[in-house]
């Protein structure tokens, strides 16, 4: 096998390895936020979605509210990575989708937890 062929065969492995590192960093960030902000959230049930009026639309138990984003990020990323391994022709698109899911969920998780803390301070008897 020529050096060029070996290099081409290792490129998808390198891309997947980099994506796995991005996933690990993203999940560590989301977990860190759940622990850090979770210490500030004392409510047993926390808002999971906000209505157009800015009020909570529905609630979930605290544990689910804090860790839901972690689970969704892990599940969606795993699904997309399995698809990438199954269909190498779509590797680039699936890796972009995976990294987009990770980055978006990192941002959404921080935004959500900060908003829950703000809500909690406005409605102390929850």
From TrEMBL:
Keyword entries, A-Z: Membrane, Transmembrane, Transmembrane helix
Record lineage: Bacteria, Pseudomonadati, Pseudomonadota, Alphaproteobacteria, Hyphomicrobiales
Name assigned to this protein: DUF1648 domain-containing protein
Top-level taxon of the source organism: Bacteria
Transmembrane segments: 15-38, 59-85, 91-111
